[in-house]
Amino acid sequence: MSEGRILIIDDGKGPGGALEMALRMDFESVKSFSNPNLLPFYLKTEKADVAILDVDFSGVREGEERGLYWLREIKRINPRIEVVILLEEEDVMLGERAIEEGAANFAFKPVNNRKLVASLRSVVQLKLMKERCELVELRFEGVKKEILQSEPIIEGSSVPYNRMMHAVTGVIDTPDAILLQGETGSGKKTIARYIHNQSSRRNKLFLEANSLLERETELGGYLFGVKKRNYPTADPDLPGKFQIAEGGTLYIPEVAKIPLSVQEQFLRYMEKGAVEPVGAVRSVPVNVKLLLGTAEDLKSLVGEGVFHEELYRRLSSKAVEIPALRHRVEDIEGIANFFIAQLCAKYHKSTLRMSARTLEELKLNQWPGNISELKLTIEKAVILCEKEVLQPEDFMFRSAAQSHLFKIPDTIEEMEKSMIKKALERHKNNHSAAAAQLGITRQTLYNKIRKYKL
C-alpha cells in the first residue's frame, strides 16, 4: 500500500463509488462524496493529499466552464491539495487549461485504473517530497536564525576589548584566512560566529570542524573530502568540511593540533582557492571564509618544527588577539550580569542581582578558564541561590584578602605551599585527612608545614 490520502469528488453521475473501491487497495485512505456544494466542508474536515475531480459539472455559475470553478475552489480553500481532473477525451483542451490553473494532472474517462494509480502515486510522491523539502528548509531557516542570534558579543569598555573589536572590524569581509588567538574559554568561537554574522556570508552556513581525527588520512578526508575511486568504502565523492561550507564560513578551533601535512593543504587553499580531496588527481575549487583558532603560541611551535612556517607568516599578518578575562576586569560586571539574566531565564528564576562583595570577588579571581569558567561559576550560583541577591557564599568564594584561588604559582615551591595550605583549610587543620588528600605521610606533611611556616 502506498502513501497518500485521496478524495474523490463527483456529481453522483461519475465513477466515484466504484473508483473508491478500486483505489482502496493502493492508498492509505480513499474517500468519495457526490455533492460538490459540501466540498468546502469536506476539505476543512478531511485530510487529503490528492483530490480527484470529475469535471462533468454544469451550470455552477453562468459563464463558468465545467469543473474549473471547483478546481479554483479547492485551490482557494487548501492550495496544498493536488488535483487530478477526470474528463472525456474530446475535452483535452479543458485539461490543459486546468493544469494552467493549478491541476497536477488529468486522466480520461472511462478510467484505466492501473494508469490512474500510477499517476496518483507520482502526484502523491511529488507532493510529499515538496513538503519534506519545505520542512527541511523551514528547519534550516530556524537553525540559521538561531545561529545568528546565538552567542552574542557581550559588549565591554576595557582597552583590550576595544582593541580586539577594532581588529575584528578590519577582517570581517577580507577574503584572507584569519587567526583567532586566545586562551581556552576566552571566546574564540563567539568571535568567529560574530565575524560570520556580520559579513556578506551571513546567509550562508557557519560550520565548525571540531572532530580532529588522529590519523592524517582520516583528517584529510574529514576536511577536504574523499574520492571513491581509490577508497571503495567511501561514498562517491564524499565531501569534506570545506566543500560543505561552500560560500560560508569554516571555523577550525585548534589549528596547532593539525599535522604539518594537513597544514600544507591550508596553504594551498589560501594560495589557489582550492583543496585536494584524498585520492583525487586534481584540486576542487572552494570558496569559504577560513577562521583558525589557537590557544597555543604558534611562533614557538614553528621553532619546534611542528607548525608550518609559511602558514604562520600568512596567518600572523591577519591575527586577532582575544584577551584573557583577567585582562578585562572592567568588563566582568557587564559579562556577569548578562549571564545572570540569561541563566535566570533558563532556570525559570526571578531576576537575581549581585551584591557589591560578590562583584569584588569576581573581579579578584584570575579566571584561568576565562569567560567559559565565569559562566559555569555563575550558573552554579544561580541554581543554588535561594534569595534575590547573589552573595559570595553562593559561589563558595573565600574572602577578598584570601582570594588567590586561580593564581598560577611561579615556582614549584609556591605550588606545593599553596596545595598544602588549601588541604589544611579544607580539612580544618586535620593533618591526617590533609596528608591523605595530598598523598603523603603525616611526617612529610609536618616537615612541609615547618618548611613553609604554615
TrEMBL record:
Limits of the Response regulatory domain: 5-124
Record-linked InterPro entries: AAA_lid_NorR (IPR058031), CheY-like_superfamily (IPR011006), Homeodomain-like_sf (IPR009057), HTH_Fis (IPR002197), P-loop_NTPase (IPR027417), Sig_transdc_resp-reg_receiver (IPR001789), Sigma_54_int (IPR002078), Sigma_54_int_dom_ATP-bd_1 (IPR025662)
CDD domains named in the record: AAA (cd00009)
Any one GO biological process: phosphorelay signal transduction system
Every Sigma-54 factor interaction domain range: 154-383
Modification 4-aspartylphosphate occurs at: 54
Keywords from the UniProt entry: ATP-binding, Nucleotide-binding, Phosphoprotein, Transcription, Transcription regulation
Superkingdom of the source species: Bacteria
Pfam families the UniProt entry points to: AAA_lid_14, HTH_8, Response_reg, Sigma54_activat
One annotated GO molecular function: sequence-specific DNA binding
Name of the protein: Sigma-54-dependent Fis family transcriptional regulator
Organism: Prolixibacter bellariivorans
Lineage, opening ranks: Bacteria, Pseudomonadati, Bacteroidota, Bacteroidia, Marinilabiliales
